[in-house]
Structure formats: structure tokens, C-alpha cells
Amino acid sequence: MSVPAVAIPVRLAVVIVLCAPGIGAAANLCASPNPPIVAGSDDRRMTEETFNAKNFAAALSYFEEDLPRELREKRTTEEVRSTESFMIGYQNVITAMRGYVLRQDALLRLAERDLAMERSRRQLVSKGDVAAASARFQEAKQRFCDFVKNALYSD
Predict the structure, then answer these.
(1) DSSP labels for 104-127?
(2) Residue 132: in which H helix or E strand, if any?
(3) What DSSP designation does 6 have?
(4) At 15, is the pLDDT very low, low, confident or very high (cuts 50, 70, 90)?
(5) How many CB atoms within 10 Å of residue 141?
(6) Does 2 map to a domain?
(7) Highest mean pLDDT range out of 30-34, 77-81, 109-113?
(8) Residue 1 lies in a domain
């Protein structure tokens, strides 16, 4: 079974976004927080950089290893839910995972927009296709940036 010619560039863009180490990790999609977050302060706001693959993997590990271990070691679920590590940790890992997914979606839409722009320069797609891809990127970016504005560490 052959792959449609249109699917190949889209798949290539996805691979580049998800696998290239510098893409998405270096450039921020959102404006810097105002006022700026001062390192070492008690500021609980999360930054865009928080939503990276390393933190996502750590959050996933919480659900795959840490939480099941706690559930096995405690007699009741309520004993787990009443621990400080659960009350703080659960919310933080959910936020980290949600933010990572939203950021990846925005980066994917950015790659799709850039691909549409390039294909438009080669007259392979219409200006309307570029406008639609740009709108999808802007929507995904706005969802992520709105999320980041309200993302706080639980403590």
C-alpha cells in the first residue's frame, strides 16, 4: 500500500518537530511572564520551559511507578490520598503532562504552518490552506499560552 504524496511531508514535519533536539526546546511560543520570575524566589508560576520531554517523562513515571507503589504499600486509597506527596505531587504531574501536550500540539501546528507556507511558495497549496494552517497554529499557541499564564506549582 502506498503512502499519499501529501502525507509524506506532513509526517516528515512531525518527525522533525518531535525528534530534533533543538526544535521546540530553544524557542518559546509565549511571551515572558510579567513580572519576570526571579530564580530562587517563592514564585509558584510555571514557565514554558517547564513543559519539556524530561519533565513529561518524570510525570509519567509518577503514574507508572510511584503512585502504584504507594497504592500497594498503603492499606486504603484514602491513606494515599491524604499524604502530602499525593496532594502536591498529583496536581503537579497532571499540570506538567497537560502543559507538555498543549506545547507539543502548538509546535506541531507551527511545523504544519511552516510546511504550508513552503508548499505555497512552490504553488502546491493555496493561500487559503496557508491561512487555515496559520489559524490552527494561532489557536493551539493561544491555548498553550493561556495555560502557561495560569499554571502554578502546588505546594
Answers:
(1) HHHHHHHHHHHHHHHHHHTTSS-H
(2) helix 127-150
(3) T
(4) very low
(5) 20
(6) no
(7) 109-113
(8) no
Structural domain including 125 reads 7-150
What are the backbone dihedrals phi and psi of residue 107, each rounded to the nearest 5 degrees, phi first? -65, -35
Q: In the 8-state DSSP scheme, what is residue 29?
A: S
Q: Show the cell assigned to 103.
A: 506545547
Residue 14's contacts (CB-CB under 8 Å, 6 or more residues apart) are 108, 111
Q: Give the whole-angstrom CA distance, residue 119 versus residue 8.
A: 13
Per residue in 85-132, pLDDT tens?
A: 788 788 999 999 999 999 999 999 999 999 999 999 999 989 999 999
What's the structural domain count of the chain?
Answer: 1
Residue 18 has pLDDT above 70, yes or no: no
